[in-house]
């Protein structure tokens, strides 16, 4: 099953390269296919390097959630319909280039966060502290408290800027912001429980990295 998923992602990447090499309106969709397939494959690969004990089929994040799959499908539908009715909208190369740069930045930041965290990183929020669990504050964690979420946030929006999907740009931004706001609050409650004052001090010094999200609020 791992090989099937890896081959599927490799096939999608290859198709993306072929589309990218052309001059048609689907060229930017080829960029998107390469970005999407590389993102999911590298999620599995970096997890295998960092934390093989937590490795599973779910590490590809292909079945992240129903909402995630619905969002992807909606972006494909929007791109296709707008290509048919507003073809000039899909030929704004400078805008797609900006989106591609956002995608590259976001994915690189996320993978840097995963590699920096090492075995501390897990796709699932942990409710119990293991003996090897440590608070990581160096590298990209010195810039943002949640660099993997920051990376994913800008990667997801970047995919829609790349496709010149105005509706999905707004939809992805709102949905991603809400998801990460709730996820960060949930995770920070656990981290405070794990590390106590050490995490609270870190929280005071380093921002979340996401706009208008400050994390869990503590009542004095």
From TrEMBL:
It is a multi-pass membrane protein. It is an enzyme of class 2 (transferase). Belongs to the class VI-like SAM-binding methyltransferase superfamily. Isoprenylcysteine carboxyl methyltransferase family. The chain crosses the membrane at residues 152-175. Catalyzes the post-translational methylation of isoprenylated C-terminal cysteine residues. This is Protein-S-isoprenylcysteine O-methyltransferase. It comes from Grantiella picta. GO terms for biological process: methylation. Its EC number is 2.1.1.100. It comes from the Eukaryota.
């Amino acid at each position: 099953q791992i090989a099937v998923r890896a081959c599927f992602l490799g096939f999608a990447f290859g198709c993306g390269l072929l589309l990218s090499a052309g001059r048609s309106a689907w060229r930017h969709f080829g960029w998107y296919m390469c970005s999407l397939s590389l993102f999911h494959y590298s999620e599995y690969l970096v997890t295998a390097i960092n934390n093989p004990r937590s490795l599973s089929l779910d590490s590809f994040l292909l079945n992240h959630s129903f909402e995630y799959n619905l969002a992807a499908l909606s972006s494909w539908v929007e791109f296709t319909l707008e290509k048919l009715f507003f073809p000039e909208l899909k030929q704004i190369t400078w805008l797609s280039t900006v989106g591609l740069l956002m995608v590259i930045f976001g994915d690189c930041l996320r993978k840097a966060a995963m590699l920096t965290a090492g075995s501390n990183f897990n796709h699932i929020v942990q409710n119990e502290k293991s003996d090897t669990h440590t608070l990581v504050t160096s590298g990209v964690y010195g810039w943002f408290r949640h660099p993997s979420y920051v990376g994913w946030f800008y990667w997801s929006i970047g995919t829609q800027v790349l496709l010149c999907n105005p509706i999905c740009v707004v939809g992805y931004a709102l949905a991603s912001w809400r998801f990460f706001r709730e996820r960060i609050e949930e995770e920070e409650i656990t981290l405070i429980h794990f590390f106590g004052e050490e995490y609270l001090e870190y929280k005071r010094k380093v921002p979340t990295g996401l706009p208008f999200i400050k994390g869990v609020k503590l009542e004095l």
